[in-house]
Write a structure and sequence with these properties.
Blueprint: E1 4-8, E2 13-14, H1 18-26, E3 33-40, H2 42-52, H3 56-76, E4 81-87, H4 90-101, E5 105-109, E6 111-112, H5 123-131, E7 136-139
Parallel strand pairs: 1-3, 1-5, 3-4, 5-7
Antiparallel strand pairs: 2-6
Helix pairs in contact: 4-5
Length: about 140
């Protein structure tokens, strides 16, 4: 059973299989904490500010609304969930989050909503799997 789990959320991937795996990882324990973490890239943030005058806080709030059905599903399963947003280089920001908060495992989805991608693992998933010092569970 894991007590501190980081779910690296990517809006381009499908997270349909993740909830049941999180229940398994936590063994249904109310003590377990799951942090759903999304990184807003620097280029996305710059574009948002430049063209729409939408800054990080407002962009995170908008993305929070999009992610809400996933969070609601996790909460309905009895999981203790927190949503967090960061900004910067995706790989570096995720690795910094792992280092700063003593997570025990990171969960990533690798089921692309765009099936024409050639690589088995996405670029970020591959880099996190190679550089993280904790277990990485990649769910298809």
């Amino acid at each position: 059973m894991y007590k501190k789990i980081l779910v690296a959320y990517d809006f381009d991937n499908s997270f349909n299989n993740v909830p049941k795996e999180l229940v398994r990882l936590t063994s249904g324990s109310a003590e377990s904490e799951i942090t759903v973490f999304n990184v807003i890239t620097e280029s996305e943030l710059q574009t948002s500010v430049k063209y729409n005058d939408i800054h990080f806080e407002q962009l995170a709030k908008t993305k929070g609304k999009v992610i809400k059905p996933f969070i609601d599903e996790l909460e309905q399963l009895g999981l203790n969930v927190t949503v967090k947003f960061g900004t910067g280089n995706i790989r570096n920001t995720i690795l910094e989050e792992i280092e700063e908060h003593d997570y025990e495992i990171i969960v990533m989805s690798n089921k692309r909503s765009k099936p024409d991608i050639k690589n088995v693992l996405g670029n970020v998933t591959h880099k996190i799997a190679n550089h993280a010092h904790i277990p990485v569970l990649i769910i298809k």
